[in-house]
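Example 358, ligand iron/sulfur cluster.
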Amino acid sequence: MKLLEEETNKYIFSRKLIDWYDANKRELPWRGISDPYRIWLSEIILQQTRVNQGMDYFLRMIERFPDVKTLAEATEDEVLKYWQGLGYYSRARNLHAAAQMIVRDFGGQMPSDYGQLIQLKGIGEYTAAAIASFAQNAPHPVVDGNVFRFLSRYFGISEPVDTGKGKKLFTSIAGDLMDRSRAGLFNQAIMEFGALQCVPGQPDCRNCPFSDACVAFETNEIARYPVKQNKTTTQNRYFHYFHVRTGNYTYICKRTQKDIWHNLYEFPMIETDRPMPFEELQQEKSFRELFPDIHTPIFRLQIANKKHVLTHRILWANFYEVTLEVLPDSFKNFIRVAENTLEAYAVHRLMQAYFEKE
Ligand code: SF4
């Protein structure tokens, strides 16, 4: 009897959710499609990116890389250039590497099987579940930030969502609630519900189809959920960039170290452990190595203390312009490029900000 009751409740929950979705969903270019490649691309773009911003990127990428093979054959530099401005560049690098794996290991056919998807670089449980369920209706629950928020409020769950235990719990609840015959639809509906109805801040609970049984609404504790363990600390970093000019040329390098913005290009840069005015900076060993014994050229500060916020980090950047007549040896490992070809290189947000100001 209890089982029957649970099944009925599940059915009602799922039915309500899907009815809400049918009436309220946004029309998006990756909706209602079963092509796993397009679903994959859209899911990777939408991680950490708002739909409005992601849409243009999706359309431009699909036009240039219409299938896995085209993506695999492109250079990583080109893929990063298409990704420029979206942030979290490891997504683009992994996308490219996974496309090459698909060509190598799956004959160029994008898989839609969960077990195969999860083997690909950059595809975790969430993305594999999304692709498998949207493309093949496979009953794998997807649990993103929107789903955490909705379920934690609806059931009044205090388990932190940013722990392994919490993720497991919410995934299991979403799996239990899922209408397995319509897994793809259910998953899209629950994500959209969290994104549009059960929003962060002040959701419109009075017009919510779930308000009659929502614990957070009943107890007036909406702001309490989702609970996070939140042990993150923020680190400040201080970058000093040099736009070095010799005639019509300048110098850049690729960030190859294991750090933010891997494989993007930037001007020669010195990092310091605290904010540093130029008078102090020029006494630093790293500065003297980069600009040794030159005839005191003039360093013009073009941008001061430009702030850029990343997850767990705040970056502060100064940009100096300097014209050199004789190039020191320290520049021999930099790439010499004509100023008017800089546009072709994938650069990060701070470099973009500099170009936009120029
Ligand atoms: S009643 Fe409010 S808090 Fe509860 S599910 Fe609906 S929108 Fe979310």
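Summary: Strands lie at 235-245, 249-254, 265-266, 269-272, 299-310, 313-323, 335-338.
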